[in-house]
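#lab-general

N.A. 3:47 PM
ok so I finally got the sequence cleaned up, no stray characters, all 349 residues accounted for. can someone with queue access submit it? mine expired

B.Y. 3:52 PM
send it over

N.A. 3:53 PM
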Amino acid sequence: MSRPQDPHRPFFPFGNPFRMILPKGSYLSPRLLALLNAFEETLAERLRKLKPKDKDEVLSLSWMKLAMELLCETHNDIKTLITDLELPVCDWDEKWIDVYLDNSVKLLDICIALSSEISRLNQGHLLLQCVLRNLDSTSPTQFVRAQSSLDGWRQHISSRNPRVENCCAILESLIESLNLPKVKNSAKGKVLMRAMYGVKVGTVFVCSVFAAAFTGSAKKLTDLSVPDTLLWAETFTELQTNVNGEIRNIFSSGRGTVLKELEAVDVSVKKLCPMIQEGVDPVEAEGLQNLRSDLGRRADKLSEGLDLLTKGVDSFFQIVLTGRDALLCNLRASNTVFDPVNVDEQAVR
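B.Y. 4:20 PM
back already:
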């Protein structure tokens, strides 16, 4: 796997996975080929929509919300493909099931970690509201309280969330599983595994961007190299190069905060602090109120963005959980052999 000290090296340690999934000489019927092409073309279009129009979109909450929405749509696409393939669970190879169940647990863990960080960031909104209330007055006592709340906010925002830090290890294990089990004597299985590969690549990319944003570390970014024979390969490579490159530029600039809306709030806070500490005379009172209004607008925009992103992550969690539950129900109904103890323990983590 990619070494932490060498984040720019493309990750592709296992060779071309499609030597296993679609080996030379494999035949797909026109119907199966049409299903696969439709899936990959849709995936390419979703990735194309995610390409930022300009660098300011990268690590904005609106872009992250869009990324999560497209991820949800892609995971729904794989459910539709499974139905269209008419490939019942009883015909699934046991290794496919193991990979699916294991990956779904990892994705649920990532969702929980991301949700906890979004919630933590949103808690800072309460401190900003205290600042705004205390700035309604120009009394020295209120200024002291406002300064205390500002200090609390900055300390809160700069703290680290261990759950998000652990996302890196989970992502690394997901990358290792990109090397899918070999498919024998099943054209439908080959289509399914190739489609799942695309879903996993997109998922790892988005989750690694979120992990980098929330940890403040470019080392959490992942550079994946995919076979150029895939219909979505060129679009994905351009997207990954564009987004990861800009994120690394943001980190190298030494900014204390990298989320765009959070950075905007921090700019307002830095302008307010000196004025509050030095006191405000009547001439400066209007300037203080302008800064207060500016902080209020930016704080509300940050809170609204975090709320929308929370809904996106929750939706993704539900899609993964629903798909996992459906598979488990089908397994029980078909008496397919799997490890129920391990599955049940992981599902409730």
